[in-house]
Amino acid sequence: MANNIQENKKIIEQLQQMAKSHGLDISEEIAGITEKLEASESSVSKVWEKVELARHPDRPRTLDYINMIIDDFVELHGDRFYGDDPAMVGGIGFLDGIPVTVIGNMKGRNLKETIERNGGMANPEGYRKALRLAKQAEKFSRPVITFIDTQGAYPGLGSEERGIGEAIAVNLREFSRLKTPVICIIIGEGGSGGALGIGVGDKIYMLENAIYSVISPEGCASILLRDSARAKDAAAMLKITSKDVLSMRVINGVIPEPDSGAQENTAATAAELKKCIKADMVKLMKRNPAVLVKYRNKKIQEMGVFTDSSKK
After folding, report:
1. How far apart are CA 159 and CA 290, in angstroms?
2. Each residue of 145-157: pLDDT tens digit?
3. Antiparallel, parallel or unpaired: β 88-95 and 144-150
4. What is the β-pairing status of strands 203-207 and 182-191?
5. CA-based angle 141:79:160, to the nearest 5?
6. Residue 282 to residue 285: CA distance in whole angstroms
């Protein structure tokens, strides 16, 4: 971004020199262009601040929230096909006396745990474990709560060999027709198919400083802008902040957190999460399972639909 700013300043200086040499006064036009460039620069900086907050090393993780809002949580392991994936956690517990199943991506809190949990990037067995727990929840009429916090699914050779694409695709299909309430919350990064694998629900929320994107800013900059150094520009282009995503009606709402990040007051953020989850959960549990599936699918089908007003 710094390079672009310098280039734009040089262009403005050249315009001023050309105008001066021809005896033209373009001061008002230059002032307007400068104002727009400054506004754009400010907007890019604000978006990148959100990216940094979503990735903050001290940001609360899935198990932190589970321990604060779920009583008697028992973690369950394994996908019954290959093994257990520490990057995806899940289990059963109680939310104010209501039995629930909780599933979520789990990043590490320090270097050792980050390595053990693969930075929250799950393998196929992680998504298959999530599906196993979701199906178990459906069998016993337990609501499902998912906490999303991942850059994306793990793209390694072993992950591809064991069918990461198929595992996520199956989850998309099965979560869309799960006959029990599903509430999804993006607590940090919501990246690509890795987020979608546990991100199909009746209600989807984002924490205020979370991000949700089809690709990381760095990946977008490398592919579309041909320059990985322009990640900040890519982040602004992608519209990944909670405010942007809400305006596109991809999520149902934004859960407030401290301006400087959830890590500044984890207890208050957890309380807001719990209040939001319980309010929706109580309402959704009263609905017929078939009705839940019907409206969940209607919501999915309406995503991305727009009307071109110029053709009216």
Report:
1. 34
2. 999 999 999 999 9
3. unpaired
4. parallel
5. 125
6. 5
Crossing angle between the packed helical segments 164-176 and 124-139, to the nearest 10 degrees: 20
CA distances (Å), 161 to each of 85, 117, 157, 166, 286, in order?
16, 20, 6, 11, 42
Report which of 281, 289, 280 is spatially closest to residue 179, judged by C-alpha positions: 289
What span, in angstroms and rounded, lies between the C-alpha atoms of 261 and 22? 53
Amino acid 78: pLDDT: 94
Residues 6+ apart with CB under 8 A from 26: 15, 16, 19
Return the structure tokens found at 43: 């907007």
Q: Which of 7-21, 164-178, 280-294 has the lowest mean pLDDT?
A: 7-21
DSSP E strand boundaries for the chain: 71-75, 88-95, 98-105, 144-150, 182-191, 203-207, 211-213, 253-255
Cross-strand bridge partners of residue 94? 71, 99
Residue 283: CA atoms inside 13 Å, Cβ hemisphere, count? 9
Q: What gap in Å lies between CA 140 and CA 45, rounded to an integer?
A: 47
For 75, which DSSP code?
Answer: E
Cα(62)–Cα(148) distance, integer angstroms:
8
Rounded to two decimals, the pTM is: 0.83
CB atoms within 10 A of CB 38: 11
Nearest partner of 266 among 212, 307, 207, 310, judged by Cα? 207
Q: Which H/E stretch holds residue 244? A: helix 242-247
| Assigned token pair, 148 | 């999303």
Altogether, the residues listed in the chain come to a count of: 312
For 191, the token pair is 């990246």
Question: For 257-301, what is each residue's pLDDT tens digit?
Answer: 998 899 999 999 999 999 999 999 999 999 999 999 999 998 888
What mean pLDDT, rounded, does the chain reach?
A: 88
Least confident of 11-25, 147-161, 200-214: 11-25
